[in-house]
Amino acid sequence: MKALIQRVQQARVEVAGEVVGSIEQGLLALVGVEREDDRARVDKLLHKLLRYRVFSDENGKMNRSLADVGGGLLLVSQFTLAADTGSGLRPSFSSAAPPALGEELYDYLAAQARLQHPTVAFGRFGAAMQVHLQNDGPVTFLLES
User: Fold this and answer.
1) If you placed Cys at 82, which of 4, 26, 35, 96 could pair as Cys (CB 3.0 to 4.6 Å)?
2) 122 catalytic per annotation
3) Taking the complete model, does pTM exceed 0.85, yes or no?
């Protein structure tokens, strides 16, 4: 399981012109589910998402986590993160989870995030989404579980 996280001042997701999820300061997480993923990997990824230290402390060092700053978490499913880009000029999606498994694990991630963090918003699984963000830094990391 992979999550491309970006520290943001604000972010929102639209589907067909309707805002379906938005946050102020926090993390935008683009989430890719792979074929071998399971709930244990989701739990590990969520632990990292909430505790990964990407926010500055009083000395300007990245020592504070999303949980520390109380920022928002915007989760957006993005199966293209599971692409194999190692050869050729076209991505292969053979390592991506089948849609049913991807949706099941994304829904599980969403439910667990709601239980563990006060401010969580979501994209819509499988939808054509427009993601708007104001990146802060920019600060971007790829997390894997």
Assistant:
1) 96
2) no
3) yes
